[in-house]
Amino acid sequence: MRYPAPLVQGSVIALTAFSAGVVEKYHPRLDRVIADFRQRGFTVVEGQCLRASHRHVSADKAQRAAELMAFLLDDAIDAVVPPWGGELAMELLPLLDYDKISAAKPKWVFGFSDVSTLCVALSTKCAWATAHCANFMQLNIAQSDGLTAGTLKILATPAGGQFSQSSSAMYQSKSIDFEHDDDATFHLSQPTTWKSLQQKVPSISMQGRLIGGCLDTIGHLFGSCYFDIERFSGCYPEQGTILYFENAELAPPALIRVLLSMRFKGVFDNLAGLLIGRSSAKSVDNSGLSYQEALVSVLCDCDFPIIYDLDIGHQPPNLTLINGAFASVALDSQSGTITQSFV
Q1: What pLDDT, on the 0 to 100 scale, is given for residue 176?
Q2: What is the DSSP letter of 65?
Q3: DSSP 8-state assignment for residue 109
Q4: Which residues pair with 204 in a beta bridge?
């Protein structure tokens, strides 16, 4: 893996919405977070594909791809960051030149949701380490919970470095209101409990290279050249691979279909472990089928450890998981830790 240079004071961050842009009512929040990043000492450059959104995207796919490529190839830039996720980053993947990207200086790309669509492609095709973590729009200075507040410190880790994170105490179950409070912070009201899918196992540990993201988007990429997990795993045969994902909107039957599709494609064949984030989708469908039952129906006989309800995804706070980093994960009782190394 090629790890981007530490993101520190003086680093240049280019903002471009390669998926959903920011409509006018959320501009005060965007301006607030940009000001907070500048207060921290970063230089923030705005792209043209940012302050508008129409039919789920900030601009047409050719414009978004051209701006994204320009930023990814500009070695004066240290990070290329969207404001948040969206729906249609996938349509940019065939428009990018991965040979040119591979030859450029690696840059941090970070966030969650549709951001992970680009991240898995960069990490598996170009060997760039990327980060699944809080979105830019959540990283105002006022946000003080440990996982979110520690995001930028983690992105300042140099190659060869290491860091550890622990499970949060509480998480947020409802979205915060950026429109009416441009400095809003999370309302962490629900207790966090990491769980073993193999319920009879009191404690779990796993090691391997991390890769993953939002299942709603990356689930469509397995088996394609944009997320060739078999090739990724083959680069680290002695270390193993830990796949992680979170479910944003898939109802239990849809979740079963995606997981079965992954199984048919061999995604689960050679994993060292699986980490599953909190689901923000409906927990039980009209038939009574639950989210947990959906997971168990497909994954119950897997021969690798599985932990679910981690701090990953659309119910913050988020762990910062580095695609490509070597990770050691441990679950004891109801809390967990994860240590990642930039090796």
Answers
A1: 85
A2: H
A3: -
A4: 331
Pick the closest to residue 122 from 154, 99, 156 (CA basis): 99
Residue from 67, 91, 86, 85 nearest 77 by CA: 67
Give the separation between CA 119 and CA 313, rounded to whole angstroms. Answer: 14
The Cα 72–Cα 98 span in angstroms is 10
pTM over 0.70: yes
Closest by Cα among 107, 98, 116, 134 to 18 = 116
- 3 state SS of 149: helix
- 281 contacts 291 by C-beta, under 8 angstroms: yes
Q: What is the mean pLDDT of the chain?
A: 96
Residue 25 tokens read as: 């009512």
CA distances to 148, 164, 204, 206, 222 from 338, rounded to whole Å, are 15, 6, 12, 10, 25
Cα–Cα nearest to 265, from 313, 235, 311, 298: 298
User: Tens digit of pLDDT for each residue in 195-235?
Assistant: 999 877 668 999 999 999 999 999 999 999 999 999 999 99
Q: Report the amino acid identity of residue 190.
A: Q
Nearest to 120 by CA among 32, 31, 219: 219
Place of tokens 């898995």: 120
Torsion of CA 293, 294, 297, 299, to 10 degrees: -110
Question: Which tokens is 150 given?
Answer: 């520690």
Structure-token pair, residue 167: 């499970």
Calpha distance 147→243 (Å, rounded)? 20
DSSP 160-193: T-EEEEE--SEE--S---TTT-TT------EE--
Per-residue tokens: 296: 């168990």
Helix 291-299 crosses helix 252-264 at what angle (to 10 degrees)?
20
